[in-house]
Amino acid sequence: MKTTSCLALTLVLLTVRPTSAVAQTTASSQKLPNATEATKLPTLPLYVSDQKTTHLVFPSPVTYVDLGSTGLIAAKATGSENIVRVKAASAGFGETNMTVLTTGGKLYSFVVNYQRSPRMVGIDLGTANGSADKGKLPTTALYVSDQKTTHLVFPYPVTYVDLGNSGIIAAKATGAENIVRVKSAGTRFPETNITVLTSNGKLYMFTVNYQHDPKVLSLDMGAASSQVTSSESGEAILSNSPIPQGNLDAYSKQALARGGSSAGESKNQLTVKCGDVGYKQETLFFPLHVANKSNVTYDVDFVKFYIQDKKVAKRTAEQAIEITPIYVYNGSQKKIDVKGKLEQVYVFKKFTIPDQKQLIIEVYEKGGGRNVKLHLANSDLLKARTFQ
């Protein structure tokens, strides 16, 4: 009887195990998420100085920049949406970081340290592919003096100039949009750099040192394009256009190659034709073909676009609203040789024309009277062809 009672008690104890033990066993049998399985975002090493400015070129517009400490200074380069300039606030700072976010949600992370003379002052993040060396932008050596002025001639108007330190002085030459004059502020300065951005989105970078009697006093950057960062890499996205610079050029070439005709006019052996209007990302492209059939060269003074009434009543002031292009493809060409041609594309932010108005395109000759006027209706704009 006693034996039977002990066996019964043992069975009861085995049957009524604590529920917490059951729960613990069940939980342990399930696979819990492991925090270490999260994907680690890559970081790039970055060295910056208080004597030089480093420029980071991103493939998309920058929407956010965070600096890990006050030892860094950073801002977008004036006139661009995808270039960030970075430098040290002073000599020496503890290791920190910088994070940049671009449109589309792409996040770039940098571990930043101080270096008095960093070997890379320009990085194209579009080609870096996880390695800063792969995205390194080339620089041109430049020697300047306090006794002589050096002039840099660019193929397009200059929109931005950055000086690495106060040892050098630079400014546009008076009356010229594409020439920058540079000289030393004193007899000596630490090695520094100059970065120049032009209206066509090209970035030019120079490593600058002092030389009492520099041998080269002028540089034509158009002729030296193979030595400068005017290649496909390192291009800016202009602030006034949602389309990257390289794509603006590509779409412009397509617009010229398509042909077609929205309007045309001939006068004094000069023929002006506007091809089919192109459209992409809230942007209009007007391809202009000018042919000089005369035996006298033609110098373009300027091309004017404006909107005005189709009919102007007598004794009524004529209302004309001029519109300015955000970019001109092949805009530096101004001379048309005898029997020669000129092909340009004028790029505008999207606009339309009221029914009672028209778009006028006028080509003016410099020092002459061979001016030609084209008329486009709103229907020509609404028929704009998109690009691939």
TrEMBL record:
<keyword id="KW-0732">Signal</keyword>
<feature type="signal peptide">
    <location>
        <begin position="1"/>
        <end position="23"/>
    </location>
</feature>
<dbReference type="InterPro" id="IPR022298">
    <property type="entry name" value="Conjug_transposon_TraN"/>
</dbReference>
<protein>
    <submittedName>
        <fullName>Conjugative transposon protein TraN</fullName>
    </submittedName>
</protein>
<dbReference type="Pfam" id="PF13595">
    <property type="entry name" value="DUF4138"/>
</dbReference>
